[in-house]
Amino acid sequence: MEKIKVGVFGAGRGTTAINQLLRRGDAEVVAICDKYEPGLEKCREIALKAGAEGISFYTDFDEFEKHDMDAVVLANYANEHAPYAIRLLNGGKHIMSECLTCATMSQAVELIEAVEQSGKIYAYAENYSYTPVRQEMRERYRRGEIGELMYAEGEYVHDCSSIWPQITYGEREHWRNSMYSTFYCTHSIGPILYMTGLRPVKVVGLEGRNRPFMRDLGSAMPCFGLEMITLENGAILKSLHGGFKHNRPHANYEIAGDRGSLRDMAEDGKLAVYREGENENCRGTHSVIQPPHPIADAEASGHGGGDYYTTHYFIEAIKGNPEADDKVIDVYTAVDMCIPGLLAYRSIVQGGVTVDIPNLRNVGERDAYRNDTFCPFKEIAGDMYVLGNTQEQIDIPDSVYDEVRRRWLCGEPG
Ligand SMILES: NC(=O)c1ccc[n+]([C@@H]2O[C@H](COP(=O)([O-])OP(=O)(O)OC[C@H]3O[C@@H](n4cnc5c(N)ncnc54)[C@H](O)[C@@H]3O)[C@@H](O)[C@H]2O)c1
Predict the structure, then answer these.
(1) Burial of 232 (0-12, 13-18, 19+ CB in 10 A)
(2) Phi, psi for 117 (deg, rounded to 5)
(3) What mean pLDDT comes out for the span 97-119?
(4) Are the C-beta atoms of residues 231 and 196 closer than 8 Å to each other?
(5) Global pTM?
(6) What is the pLDDT of residue 200?
(7) What does the pLDDT look like over 164-192, one tens digit per residue?
(8) From the CB of 307, is ligand 1 less than 6 Å away?
(9) Any atom of ligand 1 within 6 Å of the Cβ of 75
(10) Residue with CA closest to ligand 1 atom 18
């Protein structure tokens, strides 16, 4: 069988998928694109070390797009995935997209329709969903072990200030500097939707405050966001994400049903289980287990093995492996993992009202959002542009970005 030819767009986080693909016998990296040449150079070294030959390197996306490829991994800017995904799907490529899926509701509709029209695989690389504990939580929830979901918490609190120069390069307009509080909601919402299969239907948003430790590194945005989400069965999901000083692991998840609960004990790879049998109200059984990796090869991969499964199931889905159909995060679920954050910001701007989350699987629900470009990213918002911080407008002088850039170039921390 011929190897699946994969291109990678974005040479930073893109190296994660490159490393996974270089180890596979059924797929090969054929092209890599990044406008930042030292990034391409790093990829060239990785490929050489792995003995991979014949990869083409591009700085220009238009040239990269012409390369003979079956599939593309999108690891470009987080607020620019949808337009590139749509272009590539229209050109007949399968897509694996890094987080997030889309930056506006209008992009969500267009992306879904591009996937439907192309008939190609769209796999969302929501890697936090795939640690062994979270896969185990999914299996147990799906077989009814804790009954019906009543409440869930998803938390992704990652203070990146120490590496801010290395991930924003002193660019004022970098998406990490311009993202608003509720934008990067995928890692707190995604795993809960993946476990439960429930769809979000309503959201209320809240934003934290900007603080000097981030302002001094170039971000004028609130440091964190919170979404209170109602799921389709009436359960409530609390999703918290952003960066502040936090004295516990950065990703935490719990799902509580009417017959028990499951809690990810984060760093130690263990799962706390509470189960009640018939007539056992409040007298159920507590246990702690350590689920093994469903696939042993995943063990050494980043994000608790999550980085293995995203690429693995993408390639398996392209090959038509039916197991991958269940495991891959398709475009509808991918959109569900992100649009609550977009709509939570609308809630914040409107003073905390509850905002409905459409089910974009239904063609009839799409038209209302087709031209909805509401967002704080100037270049795509058009006349629906809003400021990304509803509490204060912070003007950061150029000298801050010059200093962050200097630290990036010298390899100094934030
Ligand atoms: N899932 C995770 O755990 C995880 C971790 C880190 C990053 N990410 C995601 O990966 C993506 C990339 O993040 P990153 O950390 O590498 O930082 P980044 O967003 O700064 O990097 C994007 C890279 O794409 C390149 N690029 C962007 N637009 C381009 C264009 N038009 N032409 C050529 N090159 C272009 C940039 O030069 C840069 O090297 C983001 O979407 C981010 O959310 C996910």
Answers:
(1) middle
(2) -70, -30
(3) 98
(4) yes
(5) 0.97
(6) 98
(7) 999 999 999 999 999 999 999 999 999 99
(8) no
(9) yes
(10) 77
